[in-house]
Amino acid sequence: MPRPAHLLLALALTAPAAAQGAPCAVDLHTLLTVHGSRHVQIRTLPGRFPPPPVQITEDLLVTQGGAATTSRVSVTLCCERSELKRFASGIAERPDLARLRDLLVAVRVGQLEDCVLENDLSTVTGVRTLGAYEVSWFGRGARRNDFTIVFADPGAAPLPPCGPEAQQLVEGLRAFADTLAADPDRLVCSTP
User: Fold this and answer.
1) Which of 31, 44, 119, 146 gives 20 to 30 Å between its CA and that of 169?
2) Which is nearest to 180 in space by CA: 95, 101, 54?
3) In 3-state terms, what secondary structure has residue 22?
4) Beta bridge partners of 34
5) Are the C-beta atoms of 63 and 28 separated by less than 8 Å?
6) DSSP β-ladder status, 67-76 and 144-152
7) pTM score, two decimals?
8) Parallel, antiparallel, or unpaired for β 83-91 and 67-76?
9) Which of helix, strand or coil describes residue 185?
10) What DSSP string describes 46-114?
11) Whole-angstrom Cα distance, residue 24 to residue 35?
């Protein structure tokens, strides 16, 4: 069954082209798909109220030619529950796509395996993240790698610890999605 990001990209990229009668001029073979769901809680000093926890769900789809779509829904899980939604789609700028490709090479995305990024609970303050990023990478020919990066407390996941490449990948994927959505020509919609 296709993921929501696949359907969103297909809709976003085909509707304008169909309206104009123009074929898509970029390679639409999939480069990368990501689905992430994270529960994020800021830990504070005793006696201080932390900000409410947030549930973040993200999808990213990038094609070999740079066509991309990203969606992010952030839901505050307390008090006056609020939702922030963002959807962006378009063709990534060449330098942005090049940075993403360089990142994928640097972290050896074709060799990454399921692993866990454990929360640092050794101090009273910090960020506690629970959830996962499901990543599918598509290389040349039939090359493909599917893996999951899990966010968990120490000892909670029966997976080997992630190397620094996994954290670099997560940060790089978020940066790519944020850059795509920061361009007003690509931002399809957003809630305040």
Assistant:
1) 44
2) 95
3) coil
4) 60, 135
5) yes
6) unpaired
7) 0.82
8) antiparallel
9) coil
10) TTSPPPPPEEEEEEEEEETTSEEEEEEEEEE-SSS--EEEEEEEEEPPHHHHHHHHHHHHHTTGGG---
11) 25
Name the CA radius of gyration of the chain, rounded: 18
Cα–Cα distance for residue pair 112/107, rounded to 1 Å? 8
Tokens coding 37: 């769901």
DSSP string, 161-183: BP-HHHHHHHHHHHHHHHHHHHS
Sequential pLDDT tens for the chain (192 residues): 345 444 444 444 444 444 344 456 788 889 999 999 999 988 877 777 778 888 999 999 999 999 999 999 988 887 777 788 889 998 999 999 999 999 999 999 999 999 999 999 888 888 889 999 999 999 988 899 999 999 999 999 899 999 999 999 999 999 999 998 888 777 676 666
Distance CA 6, CA 31 (A): 12
Residue 113 is predicted with a pLDDT of 96
Strand 115-118 and strand 144-152: pairing? parallel
Per the listing, tokens 């361009």 go with 183
Amino acid at 34: V
**Which pLDDT score is estimated for 187?**
64
DSSP, res 23: P
